[in-house]
């Protein structure tokens, strides 16, 4: 590290990237962060991955937005063509007063002309709980409806739908650190070594101690080396495989009847449903031998304590909710919930996707997943907010909002920290929607692809430049502290939203995030006993916390579930094929995801020196045999074509990918994976099928 060890102060905060929520010590010299160390947070116990340790310098990148920008009257038509280093052909500099007035007046004008429903908002899982709370409050209180959402719709919306339906709570039932008390753990549709790297270190230690680690993924992955079983099943065959495992448990009488009787409902229906899924019948469909399915069933069901972890390989399907229903049923039938070393744990993606969802940044729920359709719930929030009632109708989700823009019913948007021009499925459709808006206000730290389409751009503070709370995948509410000042005139997101709200006629008087937190906690029982001052003192508290001195419950639902009569539910799941199956024109399967070094749409990590140096170029992964068949050398270029569009991208040889598959990371604008993805939705979670699209792969020659 050389001179970078030289620093004159340190500030403790939370890593801005994944849902593990590692606590960090930021070392600062002058107004710059020089390096980052891990500290003893409840989730990371001093550890950090490459992103947390080296991915901090994006905050000092010259592309940072430092002044408000307004689209020039003589700007070219809206499109993806703005140079973030030289935006002056499209935008001009403005002062805060002018930019905020223009932003607010444009939204107010649409409300007056077309009604509140003509305005929608995308908030961000990259912002604090307070900022998420204020954002959803602004849309609901000022525009009177629930058309507000964020990227949870694109990651775990189907998991949330299944958990709410069958367990009565959207959060994990046990922290991932509980794996140290487990005998067996299933990791399915997740690649923690790349996407939740610090959590993966706990998983590896578990395996090293003799724990049985069962990895299930259509793509091979590094955790395989530590696994007792690696089930590389056919893409989209999740329900068939999980039902076959559960059918074995039923057939061989391995279920926990006592637990089922005490704490569940609908068991008989589930049991009858599973009779048709014997492993011998499902083996070919899944691509896994029947005996392996049976052995996995025995290992999981007969263990003293078992956990299930899952990621977006489970959730990002049109049958994502069914996938999660199966995982919930599997845990319930074995009694693997509510005790040490047991639990259901969807590994959350962004550093505050749990908190943003908890804070009500979703169209169907107010804070704490209280439904907008409940008159008493809306009355409670109207009372807290000192305002009138708002719509009892569930709002539109991320992709539905962009569809409504195409239909002309939504005409204005306020987008805070999201990048739908890169992150949405069939991104050409999303970009056309953004270009169509009468008025788009974008608030961000960089001139993102989405900001290309903005009328007003509001420069925001980066995560390490502001204070607030965030909630990680473990339900741990943690305090983030401002380490350095934002550049130029950039301001914390909460402050910008407050200024905008005031100009929209709301009497918001917040002067500090702690005031927002205190108001938010009034409407959220999950935050009982977790005060701002306590978080400042303790750094983190897990919810639920049963008393002011209780550090929080790492495991929940040992004594019943937050559902009618305290019982969880079995919901049988049928096999539903992917929306788009390969055919002679598009014969292969494309799946998308993240890479270790890059975060989501790349706006931060591609501006981070070390991370960009390690992984500088858009790439996809193909099996060496597939490359041979195509006549393409590893490192050569291929063209990927789906029904939505095509991209040209460098191909890597990777034996982890099946011969009929291609894996494409979605961080690279120059070869955007989401040009190709299928926007078909899971009917419950409204999550797109990012994990399965029919694709044709062709050699593209040297670029
Ligand atoms: Fe940050 Fe996640 Fe890495 Fe921890 S595991 S350092 S939270 S990216």
UniProtKB/TrEMBL annotation:
A GO molecular function assigned to this protein is:
formate dehydrogenase (NAD+) activity
Domain of life, per lineage: Bacteria
> Which keywords does the record carry?
4Fe-4S, Iron, Iron-sulfur, Metal-binding, Oxidoreductase, Repeat
Known EC number? 1.17.1.9
Which residue numbers delimit the 4Fe-4S Mo/W bis-MGD-type domain? 8-63
The keyword NADP appears for this protein: no
The family line of this record is: In the C-terminal section; belongs to the prokaryotic molybdopterin-containing oxidoreductase family.
The name this protein carries in UniProt is: Formate dehydrogenase subunit alpha
The organism encoding this protein is Plastorhodobacter daqingensis
Q: What is the lineage of its organism?
A: Bacteria, Pseudomonadati, Pseudomonadota, Alphaproteobacteria, Rhodobacterales
Encoded by which gene? fdhF
